[in-house]
Amino acid sequence: MSQKMENGHDDGQTGVDTFDILIVGAGISGINTAHHVQKSLPHLRYAILEGRSAIGGTWDLFRYPGIRSDTDLPTFAFAWNPWRESQCVAGGASIANYLRQSAALEGIDRHILFEHRVVSASWSSQSQRWQLVVQAPGRTVSLEARFVVLGSGYYDYEEPLSPQIPGLYENFKGTIVHPQFWPEDLDYAGKRIVVIGSGATAITLLPSLAIKARHVTMLQRSPTYIMTIDNTLGNSWYHKVLPRSWSYWVDRMFFMVMINVSYHCCRAFPTQARRSLQSAVAKQLPPNIPLDPHFTPLYQPWDQRVCFTPDGDFFEAMRRGKASVATGRIKTTTATQIVLTSGQEIDADIVVTATDLNLKIGGRIRFSLDGEPIDLADRFTWRTTLLQDVPNLGFMMGYNGFRTVVPRVPRGSHMQRQSVWNVDAAYVREAQSQIPRCGDVGPWRGRSIYAIDRMRAAYGSITRDLEFV
Question: How far apart are CA 344 and CA 342, in angstroms?
Fold first, then answer.
């Protein structure tokens, strides 16, 4: 059966394949959206447009050593298909396999059009539809949809964030690698590696690279809070007495509650939280690596995300002497060294720029309304799902009986702009012009607490500040 016959239909007028819903991206968001469409709106026709040739999104794209989730899988995984592996924080290959299995479980994989990259999306008020131009293998395809859901993530898949490091690209004679595009043939055995960054990617890379490298140095401008967690699932008493489906649910609820309680305790008692986190780190460091300045962040816990190290593998690599950390600003880069303003010189054969991602909602899709280009970043977000003054474009589907729904900021509103992410990370600050904004009132406020957000989603108004046609 052809993809056209199974997923869409010809509208009989334009000869264009027409869908009720088109989902962009076959990663975790796209698959989850497809599940809810199939469950709640089974009469609607939908398809998933995936620019790559495989399911998985981030977990299929990123191939750097040790790639893994930066949060627990019982929470990260789907509620309708629980995480069943024994690791709390899992590797990218395991997550990609889980996503493929989940899609196959409900037949979602039969609705995916692989190697279909959306070039542009234009809303027509006359037809009340989105008109998409899609690049497919060897051809350009035109598709139409009543509703478009962006499950394409929040960063640029094609262009990473390029760090401004003095002399790196002009002087350095070794290999420069960005984790987003890790070379499959890179041989780093016996090499001296400098990983620039202090976030989840750097903390993941260091212990993995240290297995084969001569030495790995994590070079950070400022430290991050790091927490060691037990990475084993399935050993608690309730796994032995409860049915498996119940124990999976308990796992999910436990981690949701634990993370939320940890977050709010840290925010309410920052001094005590800081002391507790640093005390735990000090016990895991080797004698030659001091807590200060390498693990004394300049901000309070959860002003930025706390990074996890499963079973303390980050610190274990340092205790083995295969890894170290350097803190300071880079003065220059020579052919074989990175020189800090303090005068410290770090030898390097390979430099890994783990300096986060280039944030961009909707990837490189060109959006327009009735022929007029629009910038998604210049919009407020309604319940962090729909965009101000943009019809039928969001991350969820749940409207029946109307052809069009448009979020509108009330006239005369003095709503203040706030960031979608409540973190103070440098890459988030630098990307504010690339991502939509939240407001400070009503349904325009951002998300913060899972339990409250879940209640708002289930019982909150789905008509406030919305215009239905």
Answer: 6
Distance CA 246, CA 224 (A): 36
What gap in Å lies between CA 456 and CA 449, rounded to an integer?
Answer: 11
Question: 302-338 as b/e, with b when 16 or more CB fall inside 10 Å?
Answer: bbbbbbbbbbbbbbbbbeeebbbbbbbebeebeeebb
Classify burial at 422, counting beta carbons within 10 Å of its beta carbon; exposed 0-12, middle 13-18, buried 19 or more: middle
Residues of the chain with CATH 3.50.50.60: 3-157+359-468, 168-353
Amino acid identity of 168? L
Give the DSSP letter of residue 246.
Answer: H
Indicate the CATH number for domain 3-157+359-468. Answer: 3.50.50.60
| Span 279-327, pLDDT tens digits | 999 999 999 999 999 999 988 888 888 899 999 999 999 999 999 999 9
For strand 405-407 and strand 466-468, is the pairing parallel, antiparallel, or unpaired? antiparallel
Alpha helix (H) ranges present in 106-148?
none
* 7 pLDDT more than 50: no
Residue range 84-133, pLDDT digits in tens: 999 999 999 999 999 999 999 999 999 999 999 999 999 999 999 999 99
User: Quick one: pLDDT band at residue 234, thresholds 50, 70, 90?
Assistant: confident
Residue 351's nearest CA partner among 172, 166, 221 is 172
pLDDT digits (tens, 9 = 90+) for 163-219: 789 999 999 999 999 998 999 999 999 999 999 999 899 999 999 999 999 999 999
Return the closest-CA partner of residue 268 out of 297, 300, 224: 300
Fold entry, domain 168-353: FAD/NAD(P)-binding domain (3.50.50)
Distance CA 384, CA 464 (A): 14
Residue-wise DSSP of 167-218:
THHHH--SEEE-GGG--TT---TT-EEEEE--SHHHHHHHHHHTTTSSEEEE
